[in-house]
Design brief:
The protein is an alpha/beta fold. It is built from 17 helices and ten strands.
Length: about 425
Amino acid sequence: MVRGRISRLSVRDVRFPTSLGGHGSDAMHTDPDYSAAYVVIETDAEDGIKGCGITFTLGKGTEVVVCAVNALAHHVLNKDLKDIVGDFRGFYRQLTSDGQLRWIGPEKGVVHLATAAVLNAVWDLWAKQEGKPVWKLLVDMDPRTLVSCIDFRYITDVLTEEDALEILQKGQVGKKEREKQMLAQGYPAYTTSCAWLGYSDDTLKQLCAQALKDGWTRFKVKVGADLQDDMRRCQIIRDMIGPEKTLSLFLQMMDANQRWDVPEAVEWMSKLAKFKPLWIEEPTSPDDILGHATISKCHNRVIFKQLLQAKALQFLQIDSCRLGSVNENLSVLLMAKKFEIPVCPHAGGVGLCELVQHLIIFDYISVSASLENRVCEYVDHLHEHFKYPVMIQRASYMPPKDPGYSTEMKEESVKKHQYPDGEVWKKLLPAQEN
């Protein structure tokens, strides 16, 4: 039962020095320190349950997101949780339509990252109070209630409330069987952990060999900095995972992280096509709709709508923090279903795997009802800092069973990595200055 008035919202800047080992490095982000703006909301309810939410960042700039969260806090404080979830669409629009803050958005950039952190905390709190993981909360929800969580502004030319309701009602057929399947087998995943751009060839080979031993059959390679280097690294991966005849089992993806101009992307990928990648991810600016269509991750449902309309996507990657939490992701999942485009979520970072597993498991059970050409990213970094980390078995995400959104971090980890006063940064910052 939903209960309590929100009495406190806190946000902390938590950073992990992943750049020291080259973890997370790609063509555009060569020295990322995986970080998060970590939000905790508390209520006056006697149960003491807290809602925890994050948004993912890369180090510098996290303090800006923290400021944005604090600027949004007045929309949350002193509100009854029951009133928020009872009119979730209205609450979402209140956060995204602040008459002054939307000037530095709207629904994109720092403000939208902050909005996601706040909303992620609200969903975590709601699910914990209901005693269910978020995916189960969504699966058990009446289709009309699900639709009431979505803001359809700017997308009704593609997806109306009636369209969404029809898709969700059709998804009721066979839902129990698909839920049993997920609980038994999990959702298929691919790994990005082996081939960060900053890794040496020896490290790449070592990690790829271990991943194959652990049962991984799908790998993503970071590309885009140097063509000859890309071709060498892709050849290493291709040689290790097998020749063309095994592509039905062993798949390779590529990710350029927005590095190329459109003609450059076309030329570059014509050279890399020999390695038979399943897809090329973020080949150019995420805002270049027609560029993506020519080449044939986004920050809001409107961009996704246009990419789908322009037939610029063959695979769609949702993100738990770039988009406005569950609410906006619901609209994108439904649009993807309408256009019959497979959803293959972006994950990794700090807590992105923990978050997105809920969305993609819900998608299969209640929306897409298909695993064809569908797979979810997994990165084996920083899960040890979460109270309810992801569970991977047989290279698949196993549905979480603990109540909430899997976003609660261990307090000792937060204190240790809080920037700039945590133990880790007190040691590192003086050394970096020297």
